[in-house]
Amino acid sequence: MVILALDTATAVVTAGIVDLETSRTLASRATPDAHKHAEVLSSHVRDCLNELSLAFTDIEAVVVGAGPGPFTGLRVGMASGAVFANALGRPLYTACTLDAIALTAATELNEPFLVATDARRREVYWSIHSATGAPLTSPGVAKPSYLRTWLDGDVPDIGPGQPPVGIDQPISMSVPRKAVGAGAVLHADSLGYADAMAVDPMPLALAQVAAAKIAAKAPNDALTPLYLRRPDAVAPNGNKSVLP
């Protein structure tokens, strides 16, 4: 089954054509540029199709990474996935980007591990996964130092403001000894993972995360992006006087 897989939840703009029946990536493109999601994603899709001499109508389903990721980049991929699926009349499914990274990393690791991507604002999106890549926690977001405190068995004292997601209760599992993802590499010192491994979301892994839904011919997923934190912009709470 020919699947179009897209992800713009990280700084790497990813698109690929995969065959789930043979677990093969037929063609893929990736550009590491957090500021060019909109500019390069469609051209990546076109280049993949041209490489395989396929038409858009040969696509049988679309899978798009739902994050977690920063607002602007994430919505580019999800909106593009919706456009492709709607225009072709094909099913549309979402995949957690952290889960896709974990599936790829699990082929190199044989123990539970942390996945962390760059959330900007000196924070990381994170989740913990089993040796097979299955998620053991829901996705969270936190400053690396707070996440390290939580991994060490304490609930960090955050203070007032927006609380980080996922570390407000003590950890209830063994602390992973390995970490993967761009956020883990960027904040290796604060997280305490000097040997963190850079792993990006891959098209085949994105499709594999959604494989059960694809095989079951499930209804289209709701396009619900995983932002995990409130936006910076705040609605005004009253009219501002312009009188002296």
Describe the structure.
Helix content is 30%, strand content 22%. It is α/β, with parallel strands linked by helices and 244 residues long. The chain has two domains: 2-96 and 201-215, 2-Layer Sandwich (Nucleotidyltransferase, domain 5); 98-191, Nucleotidyltransferase, domain 5 (2-Layer Sandwich), CATH 3.30.420. Strands 3-2-1-4-5 form a five-stranded mixed β-sheet, sandwiched between helices. Strand 4, helix 2 and strand 5 form a beta-alpha-beta unit. Helix 3 (97-106) packs across helix 7 (203-209). The longest helix has 18 residues, at 71-88. The model has no long low-confidence stretch (mean pLDDT 92).
**Strand order, largest beta sheet:** 3-2-1-4-5
What's the CATH class of the largest domain, please?
Alpha Beta
CATH topology call of the largest domain: Nucleotidyltransferase, domain 5
Radius of gyration: 19 Å
> Biggest sheet, open or closed, and with what strands and sense?
5 strands, mixed
The structural domain count equals 2
Unreliable sequence segments: none
Shape: globular
Question: Judging by the overall fold, what is the CATH architecture of the largest domain?
Answer: 2-Layer Sandwich
Order of helices and strands: EEEHEHEHEEEHEHHHH
Query: Could you estimate the helical fraction of the residues in percent?
Result: 25-40%
- What would the average pLDDT be, to the nearest integer? 92
Report the end-to-end length measured between terminal Cα atoms: 68 Å
Record field, number of beta strands: 9
| CATH H-level homologous superfamily name of the largest domain | ATPase, nucleotide binding domain
Beta-strand fraction estimate: 15-25%
